[in-house]
Specification:
51% of the residues are buried. This protein folds into 2 domains: 116 residues, 3-Layer(aba) Sandwich (Rossmann fold), CATH 3.40.50; 196 residues, Rossmann fold (3-Layer(aba) Sandwich). Strand 1 and strand 2 form a beta hairpin. With 367 residues, the chain is of the alpha/beta class. The protein starts with 7 loop residues before the first strand and ends with a helix. The chain has a 6-stranded parallel sheet with strand order 8-7-6-9-10-11, with helices on both faces. A 5-stranded mixed sheet has the order 1-2-4-3-5, sandwiched between helices. It has 14 helices and 11 strands. The structure holds nicotinamide-adenine-dinucleotide. Nicotinamide-adenine-dinucleotide binds next to helix 4 and helix 5. The site of nicotinamide-adenine-dinucleotide has 24 residues, from helix 4 and helix 5.
Length: 367
């Protein structure tokens, strides 16, 4: 397995607590590498390394496309079902993160909880997602949902020349943290909304609260609608599902919506406007990036609303280069990194960037 293009990959093993973790830093060309801590039971260490490499590169692209001054990284913790996840293990991880001196900044990801983040924060200031009471930004999903709404607006403008969701039919797949918030925003904006979830509680609650329609989980992808908004799991668009689509556009929060890069081309060829997932779903990372230097929700919301403009720029770039929006989004991110990399180089502790002035220790002390 190659760590092609990755700056640094650290394997951390701690005998006292049994912690085994990999921290992959893909790029710090734009700033310190920010990315989630994933807790997962991997079949092998090689699988864990592969996941860390793949996910850290995706974070680089997401941060770059969002216009953030930060790079991409990821930590994966190999769960051992025989050992409890306790304070000592998380603090050992906090020390491993601290040793990188701020080159990697941790965030919540699959399997992580705010309590984990608080334990990590006992050992290092280089962590986001701590409780609001400790100066953090709390649950990122409401902000991610604001980003989804603005991604949908950009997609509607691309299809109809008018970004307003009023009177448009939007199908939301998944009514969890992000999906339910997105549904509320869409209804408020005057859209007709249909939802589906494998667990009935979410759709039932939204139907009685807002009067949205419900369809079966297998129906939502082939619903006749203006926009399909995937807010559940990845790999929604495949060689099997793409021919069944009856939506005009796609814009949602789910990570890795395309099963393969070729699926982005297939959507384009079919005339479905695809707002790339890593651009649309950036609200959460935009939100946590604001934790350093004094968190201000209103400011981060304005930055998240700019996702509408960014998605529009990706559509323009796709037109200019004669390619699909999926490929254009990657070009958009990589070209920004390539333009800035010669100026910035590798980020190191103490480098004079906006980040070094963020004074994270003072943030954690509530200053
Ligand atoms: P969540 O677990 O709260 O919600 C996901 C929902 O999808 C659940 O209700 C689940 O039952 C449902 N679901 C699963 N499989 C389904 C299927 N086949 N059909 C319909 N529904 C299905 O997760 P979340 O935090 O709302 O995140 C949703 C997606 O957005 C994930 O892919 C996540 O990685 C991505 N994302 C989330 C954030 C965030 O801020 N939470 C940020 C960026 C990206």
């Amino acid at each position: 397995m190659a760590a092609a293009g990755h700056e640094q990959v650290v394997f951390h093993a701690d005998d006292r607590t049994g912690l085994r973790a990999i921290i992959a830093i893909h790029s710090t060309a734009l700033g310190p590498a920010l990315g989630g801590v994933r807790f997962w039971q991997y079949a092998s260490e090689a699988d864990a390394v592969r996941d860390a490499l793949r996910l850290s590169e995706a974070m680089t692209l997401k941060a770059a496309a969002a216009g953030l001054d930060q790079g991409g990284g990821k930590a994966v913790v190999l769960i051992d079902p025989a050992r409890p996840r306790d304070e000592a293990t998380l603090r050992a991880l906090g020390r491993a993160i601290d040793e990188l001196g701020g080159r990697y900044i941790a965030a919540e990801d699959v399997g992580a909880t705010p309590r984990d983040m608080n334990w990590i924060a006992l050992e290092t200031p280089w962590v986001t997602g701590v409780d609001e009471a400790d100066g953090g930004s709390g649950d990122p999903s409401p902000m991610t949902a604001i980003g989804v709404l603005h991604g949908i607006r950009a997609a509607l403008r691309e299809v109809f020349g008018d970004p307003s969701p009023a009177g448009r039919h939007v199908a939301v797949q998944g009514t969890g943290h992000v999906g339910s918030n997105a549904v509320r925003l869409l209804v408020e904006a005057g859209a007709r909304v249909t939802v589906a979830d494998v667990r009935p509680e979410g759709p039932d609650a939204l139907a009685s609260e807002l009067g949205v329609e419900i369809v079966a989980p297998e129906e939502i992808v082939r619903l006749d609608c203006d926009v399909l908004s995937p807010c559940a799991l990845g790999a929604v668009f495949t060689a099997t599902t793409i021919p069944q689509l009856r939506c005009r556009a796609i814009a949602g929060a789910a990570n890795n919506q395309l099963e393969t890069p070729a699926d982005g081309d297939a959507l384009h060829a079919r005339g479905v406007v695809y707002a790339p997932d890593f651009v649309v779903s950036a609200g959460g990372i935009i939100n946590i990036a604001g934790e350093f230097g004094g968190y201000d929700r209103a400011r981060q919301e304005l930055r998240t609303r700019a996702i509408e403009e960014t998605v529009g720029r990706v559509f323009d770039l796709a037109r200019e280069r004669g390619t699909s929006p999926a490929r254009a989004a990657e070009l958009f991110a990589r070209e920004r990194i390539a333009a800035v990399a010669p100026l910035a180089g590798r980020w190191r502790p103490g480098a004079r960037t906006a980040w070094s002035q963020g004074r994270p220790l003072e943030r954690l002390r509530g200053a």
